[in-house]
Write a structure and sequence with these properties.
Layout (H helix, E strand, L loop, with lengths): L1 E7 L2 E7 L5 E4 L4 H5 L27 E5 L3 H6 L17 E5 L4 E2 L5 E3 L7 E2 L2 E7 L15 E8 L2 E2 H6 L14 E9 L10 E6 L2 E7 L7 H9 L9 E3 L21 E6 L3 E9 L18
Parallel strand pairs: 4-15, 6-12, 7-17
Antiparallel strand pairs: 1-2, 1-12, 2-3, 4-5, 8-11, 9-10, 9-15, 10-12, 13-14, 13-16, 16-17
Amino acid sequence: MKLASVSVGGVRRAGVVDETERIVSLLSVTVDDVVRGAPVELTGEVVPLDGLLSPLHRFNRDVLCTGWNYWDHFEESAGKREGQDPVSRPLRPTFFTKGPDTVIGPFDPIAFDPSVSQKWDYEAEIAMVIGLDGRSIPEEKALDHVFGFLVANDVSQRDLQRAHGGQWLKGKSLDATMPLGPWLTTLDEIADLAALRVRCEVNGVRLQDASSAQMAFTFAQIIAELSEGMTLRAGDVILTGTPSGVGNAREPQIFLRDGDVVVTRVSGLGELRNTVTLTDLASPGVKLPADQGGER
């Protein structure tokens, strides 16, 4: 099943997306409710598949993230970590978090403020959503705790990422910068988790193209490691890392600018299409572009 979020009469609702990528029936609840165990009852209402919101909007905590999870990305960044090299290949997954206010919808503008950062980078990723609570989950049972998967772009501010003691939180957490969607695809819809193709294009130029088979740590390993002694809750979102091709590692470097169109695709999971949009993030209380359509 593929579950999208739409606004109907100003109310967020979940809708089931069919194989032709149209919503064939609305639910009386939200996608967040379904992930947390609410029964799926189809209403029979049909709406156009436009104006999609981020599938999820009610977060338990920060978005949980995995860094350096494609070795080609880890290696391409060697010598370019601005004072953080040398770094050996990690023997276990590298984790960090990013604020939930980063999340925007699959077609919303990506906020861009050069007064806050000069180095805005793209990172195509696969996101997992937990559907069953668990702590210290064995690897062989890890996928039993997964509700489904999404496409994400972990847009990062490289200068901020390096400027705060080497910690990644700040450089990953600017408001309205992480597109998520376009819908939530349940685990049973995916034939082979090791055959998902991850791609990113900027202004029509393909800059990232990889397979989930190249991941250093599998989805199950990520869950097992992250949950060791730490409870994962239904509704938690986990990003699983980006492949090589990021702008910071290129020669010459490529950073996002106002007006750039970023397209993020994962085979079987859908496509995000977002325009980088000049936005005042430096002034308090300024409404963000994505806010115009209501809650993200």
